[in-house]
Amino acid sequence: VQLQAFGGGLVQAGGSLRLSCAASRRTSSNNAMAWFRQPPGKEREFVAAISWNGGSTNYADSVKGRFTISRAYASSTVNLQMNSLKPEDTAVYYCAAYPRPYYSSTIPPNYWGQGTLVTVSS
Q1: What would the DSSP string read from start to end of 23-88?
Q2: In 10 A of CB 106, how many CB atoms?
Q3: Residue pLDDT, tens place only, 40-98
Q4: Residue 4: enclosing H or E segment and its boundaries?
Q5: pLDDT, tens digit, for every residue of 92-116?
Q6: Cα–Cα distance for residue pair 73/87, rounded to 1 Å
Q7: From 4, 71, 101, 104, which residue has the greatest number of CB atoms within 10 Å?
Q8: How far apart are the first and last CA of the chain?
């Protein structure tokens, strides 16, 4: 599976962006998907995840209430709607796929996209 993330860019604080992740083939019905991010000079961190059927989602505390993860099976994409963006949301965002149907914080993804840069200006 190859994952292509796009939709990043420059936005002012308080603004919105929508990231999308397209899979090279139809994502398996057994794959949970997720978004991670790596702020400048920091380690990569979990942002949000969605289960194989979209019925379960998980979010980092820092983005709860502002970000929404969703998936569209017809186009094999996973989206991340980001609202009320803050300068601390500035990072390279990566999409990822898990070798299981539900997200687990103890099991890492087995596929990664190349990342897309989001810059939030104050």
Answers
A1: ESSPPPTT--EEEEEE-TTS--EEEEEE-TTS--EEE-TTTTTTEEEEEETTTTEEEEEE-S--GG
A2: 4
A3: 999 999 999 999 888 999 999 999 999 999 998 777 889 999 999 999 999 999 999 99
A4: strand 3-6
A5: 999 999 989 999 999 999 999 999 9
A6: 32
A7: 71
A8: 37
